[in-house]
Amino acid sequence: MTAPALAVLALVIGYPIVRAIILSFYHYPLLSPFRNFIGAGNYQRLANDPVFWQSLVNTGIFTGASVVLGLLVGLVLALALERLQGPWRFVRGVLLTPWAMPVIVVAFLFQFMFDEQGGITDALLQRTGIVHHAIPWLTSPNWAMVAVTLANVWQQAPFFLLIFTAALGGVPNEVIEAARIDRARGWSMVARIKLPYLRSAALVGALLMIIQNFNNFPLIWAMTEGGPGYSTSTLVIYVYRLAFTSFNVGYSSAIGVVWLVLLLFIAGWFIRVLRGQNS
Amino acid sequence: MASITLQEVEKRFGETAALRPTDLEIRDHEFLVLVGPSGSGKTTLLRLIAGLETLTGGEIYFGDQRVTDVDVGDRDIAMVFQNYGLYPHMSVFGNMAFGLRRRRMDRAAITDKVQEAARLLRIEHLLERKPRQLSGGQRQRVALGRAIVRDPAVFLLDEPLSNLDAHLRVQMRAEILKVHRAVTATAVYVTHDQVEAMTMGDRIAVMSDGVIQQVGTPDDLYDHPVNRFVAGFIGTPSMGFVECAREPGEPDLLTGTGVRLRLPAERVAALPAKAERVSVGVRPERLTPTGRGDAESASCTIEGVVEVVEPLGSEQHVLVAVGEQTVTAKGPREEHFEIGEKVVFALDPGHLHIFDAESGEALT
Question: What are the φ/ψ torsions at residue B352 (nearest 5 degrees)?
């Protein structure tokens, strides 16, 4: 019964992976009719490629900061809005809208907001006296990663709000009431009683968002194209450039394979933690 | 330790009255059982005492202290929940110690208290385990332990045995009473099971439709129910009822289909003159089958047709159709009954419970 499903999976998932692994052992410029088998040549090259390492570090920073900040913002919002009742529940709905927006719209929205010439972010910061000169959000290598990460957090925090709201709804009433009788209030109620119930949701949400952010191409591409320089270039941006600007299929496949292995390790670790928690 | 006084306590959810204005006095150290069917308001009343619900009206006192507006954490109560309400991420020790830690008790005292409660409940060997590693009975013991470890003034139990199997329930009933004797707190116990109520309560409050129908000792409720609801709710099998009318010109005679009850003078005197239609209740153990000859000489008889026979090992229950009503007789299993057989029961008029047919209030 499962054979047809396995066959389809092998075709749509297995074949591209195997093909990428095979291509990673070739020098294969897309514009040339020839391709040469070079063994581990592409892997040796990436080990010494500073742009690859910078992209890997950028991917880590972008993914880590987005997931941690998104998770924290989502958690705080979920706890703050937990008691909303009746018509006030629409507030939760409103806060979910960024998550439903197309990424490209979010990218352009934040591009306008972070614009050095008349963007609302600089205008507000200057008017409130927090800064005295406009911050070059998208044109400075130091600030560009902050800008794309903030835009990403704005879009992804509602996802965490949603899963934490659902997880909070799953905390049994009797446990909350028992804790109230035991005099758990405020922070102790959150830290000692509610947060342990949110661990699985946090782990699953974080894993999903790590995978999504590892692969987040449109937001960064639309906001900075990986620049200035390589300051916001993540693995996905670098692979895109190699494959579709430089047409270097073999080398970009090698990076793709490393990228896949990294994600498999991360997913494996999360699944182990989750299993440990559930047993 | 404290008595509990409820004065005109009332709870409404919007237009729905979950608990109508209620007065109740629960004595210090007493084990009071609130019993009633689903939706009778018993859990609402318990939650009001706990402080988990806010009152719509009325006042609650623990001893002389007014606790109506006191936060649940400051009421000096402990509660055992139907689904235990244990903290799944904490060990058994952590569960029992949590309330003490929140009250800033020092570590050595907490350990002593938890050990003492664990010894009483025979769960010392489980202290390092998590709730998910425990059986239902063990979880219930832990929930009890968490409640008693703080020496609360008031001990509240909300259907704590309803998730356990029948055998374990009987065991835990005794366990809870043992714990209550050990801690001597005032206990309020909610159940829908009247057997639990009868076997555990010093006194029982029977509730229906958000109203306490009667408060009394188990014997009081069984022997002198104030209305038809209490009479039918207390006792297993339930009291059987037959509808009767007073014969014109014969005020001591009640008759109905298959029913002929001649009352002694003192019971007639206690009946209101206007009570023409009444509902007569008979406990199953008071229905003893009799021969035709004895029946003719008996002052009170009920005649019907056997519908169902339920053998229970030591005894049997016989469901008998009397006109359009069914009464249950309880007797030794040696007596033989056939389905469809006509039977006549002779009754002692002193064992009849007579209720107004309209209001259901007890008339004598």
Answer: -85, 140
Residue B102 has its nearest CB partner, among A175, A183, A196, at A183
- The interface predicted TM-score (ipTM) is 0.87
Structural domain boundaries of chain A? 37-278
Per-residue pLDDT tens digits for B40-71:
999 999 999 999 999 999 999 999 999 999 99
DSSP, res B269: H
Tokens of A49: 């490629």
DSSP helix/strand/coil, B110: helix
User: Cis peptide leading into A228, omega within 30 of 0?
Assistant: yes
Backbone angles phi, psi at B323, to 5 degrees: 60, -130
The answer to whether residue B87 neighbours chain A at the CB level (below 8 Å) is yes
Q: Do B87 and A185 touch (CB under 8 A)?
A: no
Cβ atoms of A19 and A31 closer than 8 Å: no
At A118-171, the pLDDT tens digits run 889 999 999 898 988 888 999 999 999 999 999 999 999 999 999 999 999 999
CB contact under 8 A, A174 and B52: no
* Amino acid making up residue B332: P
User: Edge-to-edge strands of the sheet including B65-66?
Assistant: B16-26, B4-13, B57-62, B65-66
On whether the pTM is more than 0.90, the answer is no
* Residue A234 burial (CB count, 10 A): 30
Tell me the chain B residues in contact with residue A192 when contact means C-beta distances shorter than 8 Å: 87, 98
Other C-beta atoms within 10 Å of B336: how many?
Answer: 8
Q: Which CATH superfamily is domain A37-278 in?
A: MetI-like (1.10.3720.10)
Mutation target vs B (from A183, A185, A200, A277; most B CBs, 10 A cutoff): A183
Smallest Cβ–Cβ distance between A174 and the set B81, B102, B103 belongs to B81
Q: Is B168 on the interface with A (CB under 8 A)?
A: no
Residue of A213, A269, A268, A224 whose CA lies nearest to A67: A213
How far away is chain B from the Cα of A197, in angstroms, using its nearest Cα?
Answer: 8
CA B150 from chain centre, in angstroms, equals: 27
Mutate to test the interface with A, among B71, B75, B89, B139 (most CBs of A within 10 A): B89
Long-range CB contacts for residues A240-246, cutoff 8 Å, separation at least 24: A243/A30
Question: Measured between alpha carbons, how far is A219 from A222 in angstroms, rounded to an integer?
Answer: 5
Contact A178 B146 (CB under 8 A): yes
Q: How far apart are CA A51 and CA A55, in angstroms?
A: 6
CA B342 to chain centroid, in Å, comes to 35
Region at B258 (left for phi over 0; alpha for psi -120 to 50; beta for the rest)? left
Q: Per the CB < 8 Å rule, is B85 touching A177?
A: yes
Answer whether B146 sits within 8 Å of A180, measured CB to CB: no
Q: Determine if residue B360 is left, alpha or beta; phi over 0 gives left, psi from -120 to 50 gives alpha, anything else beta.
A: left
CA distances from A133 to A29, A116, A136, A139, A140 (A): 46, 10, 9, 14, 14
